[in-house]
Amino acid sequence: MYLSKEQLERYQGCIRKTVEWAHSRYDKILAEPDLQGHYKAPAFWAAVGDAAMAGQCRQILTQRFLRPDGDFRMADDVKGFVQFSCTTRNQYIYPNGWVTVGMQKAGAYDVVLQAMKFILSFQDPTHGGFYYAFDPKTKQIDKRLMDSSSTSSAGMALLMTGRLAEARRAGDFVLRLLAIQPEPDKHFFSCMQPDGTLFTDVFSGENQWADDGRKQKCLSADADGLGELTWLVGKPTKFLTRLYTATGEAKYLEGAKKAFFFFHKLHKNAWINYASCKTMWAGAELYRLTGESVYAETATRLLDYYVKTQQPSGSWVHTLWYKSEEEQTFCWTADITFEYGAEFSDVVYDLCSR
Question: How far apart are CA 295 and CA 36, in angstroms?
Fold first, then answer.
């Protein structure tokens, strides 16, 4: 076991504190209208083993958000993510993958069956990637780009539901994306065009909130790591790691390592960036698979920072955009807190499994 007794107790205490936050805020969570405040909750409650709360999440998501087409939206023509709409304009089905994985873990197979039909409609038949956008008003998929986050979130749902053929195609898309980077030590461009080429026309601006800006579609090793959306490479790292676990195919492990080590090329402030949690999540599993200490050291270095910065209430402030919990919208508080609780549980498991 990689973790010391003291580390294990500290990490478990952090998770318990997160659970206490979620229970004590239940009325506020229930009243939150935006999908952003709910989509990671099923995975969280499944990870901490609370079947009753997972069942409550099922009711909320199916009665309030699930549409006849299998999508989860606030209304028939409104996705949600009102405070961060650039997410759905760049990676529309990213939350769908989270919901589906959590529902599968909780045994809500009927919900998963309906949700997977919508997710699968986004997979490009040629390249295996998943399209980045959807217009809930016209009900049309935008097929101009495929992206790493949509593909990886959908890929995790494919793995969870046993769809290995489609998951391999999604994994091969990510491998292709990694292989054709023109400056692999400097940039990670996260989007591919239908002709199989990278989308690199991203340098129109540095605004994190702009859906057409560089930060939404490309990681840069030259920029301050504190302001980068490091999940663009972190989620693919985790997906490829899980795909290797499921298939045993070495190419996916090698791709996961390649994506993992790009994180290490980023500016040092990436280590205190809350978006880096997905590299932590992947690193722990890579350690379980390989036994190589660099993966465990990365995972625990990030985890230690997140544990240290947990709020007294048990939540976190997403400092990419907010300075305090009072300033932060509640849907963002729920988003990051549910994610950390779910991922920390996986990280501790992986670090204790070798």
Answer: 30
String of DSSP letters for 303-344: HHHHHHT--TTS----TTT-SSTTTS-HHHHHHHHHHHHHHH
> pTM for the full model?
0.97
Listed by start position, the domains of the chain span 5-351
Distances (CA, A) of 226 to 147, 208, 244: 22, 12, 30
Q: What's the rounded Cα separation, in Å, for the pair 181 and 189? A: 7
Quick one: pLDDT at residue 22? 97
191 CB-near residues (< 8 Å, 6+ apart): 132, 145, 146, 147, 148, 198, 199, 202, 217
Token pair of 153 as six digits: 């979130």
Q: So what's the pLDDT on residue 319? A: 82
| CATH T-level fold of 5-351 | Glycosyltransferase (1.50.10)
Which residues, listed in sequence order, are joined to residue 189 by a DSSP beta bridge?
Answer: 218
**pLDDT at position 321, please?**
79
Query: What is the gyration radius of the CA atoms in the chain, in angstroms?
Result: 19
Q: Please report, for residues 96, 98, 142, 240, 352, the alpha-carbon distance to residue 169 in angstroms, rounded to integers and kept in the order given.
A: 19, 19, 20, 11, 31
CA 205 to centroid of chain Cα atoms: 24
In this structure, the chain runs to a length of: 354
**Residue pLDDT, tens place only, 95-104:** 999 999 999 9
User: What gap in Å lies between CA 192 and CA 53, rounded to an integer?
Assistant: 39
Check residue 208 and give its pLDDT.
82
Residues of the chain with pLDDT under 70: none
Helical packing angle, 109-120 and 94-106, nearest 10°: 160
